[in-house]
Each structure stands twice: as C-alpha cells, then as structure tokens.
Amino acid sequence: MSKPIKTYLQKYGFDFSNPYNYSETFHEDIVSLINRKEYNKVVLICLDLIELYPDIDLIPLIIFTFINHKEFEIVLKICDKILEVAPNHKILFDILEKLEQLYYFNPIIDLCIKFLNTINRKKLMIIYDLISKFLSHDLFNSNYICKLITAVLQNNPQDIFIINIIPKLIKNNIYNNKLVKVCRSILDASVSPHIVHYLINIFQKLLDNGKYNMALQVSKELFSKLPQSPEVWLMVGGTYTKLGNYTQAFNAYRNALKYSDTKLTNKICISFAWMYICLGKYDKAIKLLLKSKDRENKTLYDNYLGFAYFKNGNPKEGIELIKSSIMLDKNYCHAWINLAKVELELHNHYASFCACFECLKINNQYQEALDLY
What is the per-residue pLDDT for 122? Predict the structure, then answer.
C-alpha cells in the first residue's frame, strides 16, 4: 500500500489490525470524494483494499457508488483488480445483478467478456443465466448479444452458451432482425459442425412455429457460409415447401442431391415426397418413398408414407404407419399433427383433439396445431 493512501486511511481511524470495522465517517468521506469527482484517489484506495482485504464490504459500496454515477470504465478497472486477486469473488456477480437492475447492458457485456478466461465453468453458467433473463428486453440491443457471442466463441468454439441463447429468443417470440443478427454473429465466429448442426435445429424450430420467412432468413445466413452444404439446401427446400413455393423447393432439393452423399440422399428423397404430398400427388409420393426404403429416417418415413397412404384411399394402413412413427418418437410433433388431421377427416373429433393436444404439450407454439383448433 502506498504511503499517502495509508496515511489517508489512518486519518479516519482505519484499523489495519481489524480492517472490517471501519468508521461510518470513513465511508461517508469516500462517497464525498466520488461526488466531488476525485475518482483517482478513490480508485487507488479501492485497489489497495482489494489487494489486502478483498472481502471487506466497503469495496462493493464504492463500486455501487461508481455505478450510480455511471462511471463504468472505473467499475471495470476495479473489477480487473478483483479478477486478478479473487477471480471467483461473489462481488463480481453482485455487480452484474446491480447493472441488470439498472438496465446498464453494455457494461454487463464488457464485464462478462472479462470473466470468460478467469471464472470457473460453474460460475460462468451463472453469468449465462443472468444474460438470458433479459435477452428479450426492448433496451437490450442485438449488437450487445452479438458482441458477447463473438467473445464466447473465440474463447471456446463449441461453447454450450450458444445452445441457451437462441431458444430463449424463440421462447420470448423474438422473431425479428435481432434473431437473424444473432445467427449471423454465431456463423461469423464459428462454422464448426457443432454450430451448423445447432442452427439447423433452430431453423427446424422456426418452421415448426410457423415462422417461415424468418426460417428462410436463417437458412440464407447458413447458405452464405456453406453454399455447397446439402443440409442447408435441404433446409431451404423445406422452407419453400412450407411457403408453397414448390418451384424453388424443387430446385433446392435438386441442389441438395447434387452435393449430398449416399447417407443423406434418402432423407432428401423423403423431403421430395413430402413436397409431392403437399401438391396432392400422392401416387408419386408413395412411389418415391417405397423406392427410398429409408430406415435411418424411419420416423419421417412412416409418418410421410402413412399420410400419403391415407390421402390416397388406404386409411387403415395410413393411420397404422403414422402411429408407428409416433411410437418411434413420441416427441415428433409432425406425426401427432398428421394423426390429428386424419382423425378429423374421419370425423373422430375427440381423437383428433387429443392428438393435437399431445402436439401442443411438446411445443405450445406449433403453428399447425394452433391452426387446427
């Protein structure tokens, strides 16, 4: 501790043998220094106290006073010292909560970025949970989210944080440019197979929730990075099928076949078949599905073939296949909704309602179920 600071502390009766029992006068004088904008002196005192007594409750009082004065650069400077001396100190999380309460988002992001290399994984998840609490707030600019995502992925390209952030946006119905910007930021930072697979799942969630134009924008972001990816072309084809733009869907599926390996070819054929079903060409869909005989995607295969059989005049076998698809995956919403549709056509209203209800239990935003009842 520097001599001037030590002298200053002693002036106010600061007992170095018992530092946790400082006088109220000393605290008031610190606040007075801040009010008079004598920040350098206060910062030096604070940094020295952190070095010697990181648990002293005067430190958070000083930091919160600086927060109230919106002196965020000073707050971050003090936090740097805390991270150096006691990287898992509780005060760091108290600071985050205080900033959140006051909607000071930019310093929150700056502080979280500082944490990435210094705090253990368990406490890092506390930060992520805190961030997710206010992702949907109107004042939380998407640029802040993107800034944090970039830092997280640079720190760890496979970071689990990415698995938490977008579903939170979707859950809160943030279907706007914020979501697209977040996806773009993720892809700018990493196009690892893990990230691509994750974004494809996000895309599917958007389709399920009836956000077709938003899904198309997400698929275009992926396409800009991976123009020869058959999975991305398959995404684009599925989106255009949902939008009823079958010419574009056909071209997308054709490109998916062009770049695909044998393993993915059957899945693309199944998607082609669903497009034929949407067009009412059930014979073509059945022939294509029977030709593919895809067992790796049997859940989709049974669902689509069953629905095609039903619509083509074979209701018994059709319903059995749709139910087989559900047995393979009880969380497969599309099979539940197909079962609801066929039961409705047979005037089995209660059975149809029950199937629709099961679908909404899995995903309460599933658009086709919401449209059906």
Answer: 63
Instruction: Give the pLDDT confidence score for residue 65 in this predicted structure.
Output: 87
List pLDDT tens digits, range 27-59: 777 778 888 888 888 888 788 778 777 777 778
Domain boundaries, given as residue ranges, for the chain: 1-134, 138-226, 294-373
* Under 8 Å between Cβ of 44 and 2: yes
Sign of dihedral through CA atoms 281, 282, 288, 289?
A: positive
Q: Say how far apart CA 239 and CA 195 lie, in whole Å.
A: 20
pLDDT digit string (tens) for 326-362? 999 999 999 999 999 999 999 999 999 999 999 999 9
CA 34, CA 290: separation in Å to the nearest integer? 77
The residues of the chain scoring below 50 in pLDDT are none
Contact criterion met (CB below 8 Å) for 173 and 209: no
Q: How far apart are CA 373 and CA 368, in angstroms?
A: 9
pLDDT at 10: 60
Give the number of residues written for the chain.
373
CATH code for the structural domain at 294-373: 1.25.40.10
| CA-to-CA dists, residue 216 to 24, 180, 346, angstroms | 61, 10, 34
Query: Which pLDDT score is estimated for 278?
Result: 92
Cα 83 to its chain centre, rounded Å, is 27
